[in-house]
From TrEMBL:
SUPFAM superfamilies in the cross-refs: Aldolase
Provenance organism: Alkalibacillus filiformis
Region annotation Disordered: where it falls in the sequence: 1-20
Name of protein: Hydroxymethylglutaryl-CoA lyase
Lineage: Bacteria, Bacillati, Bacillota, Bacilli, Bacillales
Keyword tags: Lyase, Metal-binding
GO molecular function, one term: hydroxymethylglutaryl-CoA lyase activity
NCBIfam families in alphabetical order: PRK05692.1
Pyruvate carboxyltransferase domain segment(s): 7-274
InterPro entries with a match to the protein in the record: Aldolase_TIM (IPR013785), HMGL (IPR043594), PYR_CT (IPR000891)
E.C. no: 4.1.3.4
């Protein structure tokens, strides 16, 4: 197999994983959880979102969380930012990286952001410009790349055009999302083979969801094509509020275990990662869905 020499896992659990949880997680528990993950060897943690609390009450404590965590050298602490008001709070909290987001389909974008795609661009451009002035790196997210809950298949040329626009704004990296977990390995190979004609693999990350149990299979296909940056959420937390039945992200613990078995990742301490997973599971109303957590319960 032709595989990359190094792979980076980007943990999105504290933001993407928690944002739709109905049970409110205490601020001090979020802080402790992030601190535990910082000690596990992860090099990137998306810690929160500076979206208005009206839309995501679970993350209303974004500033307090960002200011209170114990920052570890070598770890990037990022946060999602929807607009200039959110950026002001993110800069106040001194996050390392700002993430912007939009969808590849009009319907999902309107439901998620309440704007058309064309209306979204100027809002994001202002955020990117001001974040750069503040010395922050900027990451972009494009959702529903492999399928939309409202429109079905999404034209890959439309996706590439959106990605072009975001890179032209000056973002440093772009995360390509299978938001509702409909991608399959053949589709992933086709889409990513098109992407590599337009963009550097060093600037693209893959964000797979495991709704139909294909996230790790899709990851392997991406690895074979030379992609080496992957988003995940510890324990498989997460989901899409606008896609009925969409389950969580690919689990960080499962992904890290697979990569270590393949000889592609050696920096993460799986025992510390599992301890962090057990900690956050104890604060939730339901068990985490990762295979690693399932195994630990049976042992």
């Amino acid at each position: 197999m032709n595989l990359p020499k190094q792979v980076q896992i980007k943990e999105v659990g504290p933001r993407d994983g928690l944002q739709n949880e109905k049970k409110e997680i205490a601020t001090e528990d979020k802080i402790e959880w992030i601190n535990q993950m910082s000690e596990s060897g992860l090099s990137y943690i998306e810690i929160t979102s500076f979206v208005h609390p009206k839309w995501i009450p679970q993350l209303k404590d974004a500033v307090e969380v960002a200011k209170s965590i114990e920052r570890k050298d070598g770890v990037t602490y990022a946060a999602l930012v929807p607009n200039m008001k959110g950026l002001e709070r993110a800069i106040e909290a001194d996050v390392d990286e700002v993430s912007i987001f939009m969808s590849a389909s009009e319907s999902h974008n309107k439901n998620n952001i309440n704007k058309s795609i064309s209306e979204t661009y100027p809002v994001l451009k202002e955020v990117v410009d001001e974040a750069k002035k503040a010395g922050k790196s900027v990451r972009g997210y494009v959702s529903t790349v492999f399928g939309c809950p409202y429109e079905g298949n999404v034209d890959e040329h439309q996706v590439i055009d959106i990605c072009d626009n975001l890179f032209n704004m000056g973002i440093d990296e772009l995360s390509i999302g299978d938001t509702i977990g409909v991608a399959n390995p053949v589709q992933v190979e086709h889409v990513l083979s098109e992407f590599e004609k337009h963009f550097s693999k060093d600037q693209l990350a893959l964000h797979f969801h495991d709704t139909r149990g294909m996230a790790l299979a899709n990851t392997v296909v991406a690895l074979q094509l030379g992609y080496h940056i992957f988003d995940s959420a510890l324990g498989g937390l997460g989901g899409c509020p606008y896609a009925k039945g969409a389950s969580g992200n690919v689990a960080t613990d499962d992904l890290a275990h697979m990569l270590q078995q393949m000889g592609l990742e050696q920096s993460i301490d799986l025992n510390k990662l599992q301890e962090a997973a057990q900690f956050i599971e104890s604060k939730l109303d339901q068990p985490l869905t990762s295979k690693q957590m399932g195994i630990s319960r049976r042992l």
